[in-house]
What does this fold into?
Amino acid sequence: MTAKTVLIVDDEASIREMIAVALEMADYRVLEADNAQTAHAMVVDDQPDLLLLDWMMPGTSGIELARRLKRDTATAELPIILLTAKSEEDNKIQGLEAGADDYITKPFSPRELVARLKAVLRRATPTGVEETVEIDGLRLDPVSHRVSANGEALDVGPTEYRLLQFFMTHQERAYTRSQLLDQVWGGNVYVEERTVDVHIRRLRKVLGDDHQHLIQTVRGTGYRFSTKE
Amino acid sequence: MTAKTVLIVDDEASIREMIAVALEMADYRVLEADNAQTAHAMVVDDQPDLLLLDWMMPGTSGIELARRLKRDTATAELPIILLTAKSEEDNKIQGLEAGADDYITKPFSPRELVARLKAVLRRATPTGVEETVEIDGLRLDPVSHRVSANGEALDVGPTEYRLLQFFMTHQERAYTRSQLLDQVWGGNVYVEERTVDVHIRRLRKVLGDDHQHLIQTVRGTGYRFSTKE
DNA sequence: CGCTAATGTGACAACTTCGTGACAATAACG
DNA sequence: CGTTATTGTCACGAAGTTGTCACATTAGCG
It folds into this structure.
């Protein structure tokens, strides 16, 4: 699973720092901005997965930024959590009306922050359309998360599963090891290219004699999933 | 169409009276209770179609009753309208979070009351007839709120019950811990993902050797309820 | 045929994920 | 108001998974 990016917007550096530490411990990527202007630009450029926004800031207030982002279709989907001081609590409603997905009252524990952040991200993540693919008696069902060959269940590990799913939905095309790492492992991982070979082998082993011919080696390039030849 | 039954819960008899008159003129059946205790019992016994609940009451507050009702699967579907005094308006959010479907601020006109009541009833899902599910001798009956295995009653805790009900009505599908938290615990709860594991374990324990194979671990993903394999 | 680069393969240590029992906090109940 | 359930979290060990390496095997080429 790729790490989610969170943009923290607060004019107080100490608070940003505190939050950043908590989030990094929980394996989130962290971006920071200290005013609404910069924040807006970063939202557009860096496309964070979530916005942690302080309510009160000099100049354009957090609430104003939230409202603006929600109004723009390009950024309307971005989940926003508002940070409010206790005395401002009455404004909760206004905040939620402006489009915030949650609000947290200062002071808060890092635990609470991370928990609510998870919950918001969870709700925001769309579930892609997942259809069963079947090729030559080899069947992969994303819904039940199962793989079977001629009706018999196969025990496929997580990485092999993703690899197979990618192949089955991208047949008849050769991919380099590098491309496979990007697509199956996810962009920002450093893994040796030869590791792909090992997983290909593991996958072939699981598929057994009946189906391993579907995964073909393209010498000097990489691999291909194909029913032909 | 049969008349809908509305349960009014308020400690002030005059207010109940006023509401009762308005509702009866609009052809509703009316029940009354002056405290949360009685109200809870009446909800269970008389199964009203809607609950009109005063926020502030001596003893268990309305909000507390609402929360309790929403937490229990047997009564979770009951639409609730909260009555709040103007000065308590800040608590709106709290009320909605507790599961209320609407709130009305005192003083209100009988007209308004009936209008919103209609609206809520309209929205309220006909609670798709709750049917007993039986799989492999494992039976869950939503009406009596009971679980049995091969005829023998099982002692299932509230959370385990909801989890099992969800699984039995959503077989053959792998769910992540996140999705289970959303579906079984409800969206706005901040709970660690691993907590799901613990409840899965508790559920498996209750199901015993005969049926625990129905709950399968999908490594790297989550869990699945299935009769196969 | 012999050489070389590319790929296949088995082993393995580091790392994740999962199952499990215990525990404290909270809620339900009489 | 004390007693009993229920719940969420944690810590630990077991089980499964991953990336890497060393070495074996193969394909391509002159």
Notes: Chain B touches chain A at residues 90, 92-93, 172-174, 178-179, 181-182, 187-193, 218-221, 224, 226, 228-229 (CB under 8 Å). DSSP finds eight helices and twelve strands in chain B.
